[in-house]
């Protein structure tokens, strides 16, 4: 009987043949390089499986890296925003410090005489009484402040100390209705009295005849009379001149140069009443006031269009004493007597 399945070579023979073929292929590949191209084809065909197997790991790594990068970027963004905020606040303070430094420099350059004793002070409060115009400063008797001491700003005369405490003092402004200040017209050296009329109004020049030579735009400076306020500091600029022909009386108003509604830093001066200095002559006041105004900020001086005409010539000097009385005659005589 013939078997259904025919039997082939034995397993030992098959193994021997396989080993022989493998050795032959290895020798041929190493010696001849015949299978290099085949191996490349096989690698190319198998490479998609590598990508498929490595894909999940790359996806997970990318997701975790993105999450970590986002968190890190958010933290860095918050840190940078905080740093930017602090820098901006520092810049704001820097601008304020620069402005304060400029104001203090202007104040320190305000005294006309270099040997004048001076002290910077700050306004800490304004008066609450609607009938008086006063401010409170942060210097008192421990700093050597005394009653009657002159106070100026970087733009002009502010007032004088009327009450002194241990660490604070009260300053009466020149615009107060009870305050009067001896001044001098810078253009022609006429000396008059400027009285306060309330800080909402301009100063008023008192006791003036109708033919007084004062024009709109004239600069008024301290005359030094009375020995309280030093000479040559800007006080006001003439803002209006009205002549009453029936009464032969002139109403003159002047706007203070110190900006009395916006006071912050002030300068205390130890004036002639404490230093024992003699008041200057009108011509000397004129000279030093011009030097002072050349160093001050442009807003103190009136615009060129508002300045009055040039001072009258020497021939016009003699009639002035006859038409002016009291405080006005002295400077007129002084100028008229010059050669």
From TrEMBL:
Do you know which NCBIfam families this protein is assigned to?
mreC
Q: Which UniProt keywords apply?
A: Cell shape
Q: Does the keyword 4Fe-4S apply?
A: no
Q: What does this protein do?
A: Involved in formation and maintenance of cell shape.
Region annotation (Disordered) ranges = 300-339
Give the record's family classification.
Belongs to the MreC family.
Superkingdom of the organism of origin:
Bacteria
The record, for InterPro entries, names:
Cell/Rod_1, Cell/Rod_MreC_2, MreC, MreC_beta-barrel_core
The segment(s) forming the Rod shape-determining protein MreC beta-barrel core domain are: 123-270
Protein name as annotated: Cell shape-determining protein MreC
PANTHER family reported in the protein's UniProt record = CELL SHAPE-DETERMINING PROTEIN MREC (PTHR34138)
Q: Native species of this protein?
A: Pantoea septica
Query: Is Metal-binding among this UniProt entry's keywords?
Result: no
